[in-house]
Amino acid sequence: MPKGVPESIPNDGLTTRQRRNQPVLAVNTGPGKGKSTAAFGMALRAWNAGLSVAVFQFVKSAKWKVGEENALLALGRVHEETGQGAPVQWHKMGQGWSWIRRSDDAEQDHAEAARAGWTEIARRIAAAEHDFYVLDEFTYPLHWGWIDVDEVVAALRERPGGQHVVITGRYAPEVLVEAADLVTEMTKIKHPMDAGRKGQKGIEW
Fold this sequence. Notes:
This is Cob(I)yrinic acid a,c-diamide adenosyltransferase. About 35% of the residues lie in helices and about 15% in strands.
């Protein structure tokens, strides 16, 4: 597809504008590095286009840090102060989700937390609360059976409006891959860790 031009045009009765403005479900999967990074890069584009962004990280530890979190939240503050871009929210399962009150010393059931996160995300999608969703590392609770993948696919297929959703993580279920509009598999060729080098600031986080 050079310069973003499709090789063929479907006979679907839609205009070029209607086809261009359809919501996208994207999946970044595979064993290689860059799945989340690519999703956050799309979120930056979405912010610049005036689309409200919500990131939901399905990670077990509150210590999990990514540089894009600070960058995107800073852009959210830019929007609040200047009106440029759009609102940004960032939620993390390892912190107990921002809408669930938990005591700091409570032992967290990760499967329960993942289900609670998806329940809230599904509610927001049905209400069209955001324009662009990143469900980071979401393939893992699907792969482990914590969340029903058929329920997820049904909710995504039925989402109202022009909401874009990007899902990242290894082991993307085939039914999710089939439902997606854009699927990218990251394949590792070489990695510094192969030579015994640890994760590096500015590269891994």
